[in-house]
Structure prediction request, 229 residues.
Amino acid sequence: MQKSRIFLFCFFSIGRMDVAGRDVTRWLRLLLRKEGTDLHRTSEFEIVREIKEKACYLATNVVKEEANENDKLIYPLPDGSRLEIGASRFRAPEVLFRPELIGEEWPGIAQLVNDSIRKCDMDVRKTLYGSIILSGGSTLFQGFGDRLLSEMRRLSPQDTKVRITAPQVGGCGVANKFIFFSSRVKTERLYSTWIGGSILASLDTFRKLWVSKKEYEDEGKKILHRKFF
Prediction:
């Protein structure tokens, strides 16, 4: 007899924090200004976003990275000039794990994941610690998986096996402190949420989840919880 695996969804354990990619971009712009590069115009915000996506990374050991003051990267700008970027490269995405850096009181992403798992029944926690999947644009930072793994090992109970899974992503790299770009980029992780929604919407059974205008007018947002949760 073929065995089937049954997965239960603990909707009550879902967590969120209102700190995301745009906050990292704003923080990076401020850090670059402190380093002597002022990109304050609205049109230059897009440049800062590209710098974030192509040059920033998450440090596994922040203290060690802070000690490397002379480790800087040369980043080519659209006008042909070159920008020298220092510690801003890892300080900017650090807000995902330490939102207090920008004055936010949300728990960091690692704490959020750990809290979510601990809200579930003890019988499934071991499985959840070993089944963490990265999804979304902000997980694409170089070193994100390693940093999250390090934090989760620290937060999880002793002898707990933590496993993090994520599609591999190409796109850019660093050689001799100069950044270079590749056209070969895997987008599964970036668009995985949209892809999942697209697959769900294509199923015949999805019709049962449709909410009509009349249903919403009669019940309001309660209809969403009744049908989806």
User: Anything to note?
Assistant: The mean pLDDT is 83. The beta strands are 73-76, 82-85, 132-133, 164-165, 172-175, 178-181.
